[in-house]
Design a protein that fits this description.
Strand content: under 5%
CATH superfamily: Ribosomal protein L20, C-terminal domain
Order of helices and strands: HHHHH
Oligomer: single chain
Length: 118
């Protein structure tokens, strides 16, 4: 009986890596040795990116709130301090969304903060 050399597990493992490397440039999507490194590096970038996405969105929300509040005559830090003094607990995502989509209620909120700060 002949000895089995190329088992299906080995082939499946290689196929899985090449499937993940689909669309990569050059030998990265055809050569297993190069594709393995490329897929590993892509996984590291993806892991890091999932953490960075949270930071990036928070930065974006703060920038939007800052721009909207400065139009009303306050700074971002004064506004956030006023919100805590007024016992208003809204997260930055909701505040940013309100500043873009519902300008009247946001300006009412700013007026409330101004009265607390005064």
């Amino acid at each position: 009986m002949p000895r089995a050399v190329d088992g299906t597990k080995r082939k499946d493992r290689r196929k899985k890596i090449l499937k993940q490397a689909k669309g990569y440039y050059g030998r990265r999507h055809t050569n297993n040795r190069v594709a393995k490194d490329a897929v590993a590096k892509a996984g590291q970038y993806a892991y890091r990116g999932r953490k960075e996405k949270k930071r990036d969105f928070r930065k974006l929300w703060i920038a939007r709130i800052n721009a909207a509040v400065r139009a009303e005559g306050l700074t971002y830090s004064q506004f956030m301090h006023g919100l805590t003094l007024a016992n208003i607990s809204l997260n930055r995502k909701a505040l940013s969304n309100m500043a873009i989509e519902d300008k009247q209620s946001f300006s009412a909120l700013v007026e409330q903060v101004k009265s607390v700060l005064a």
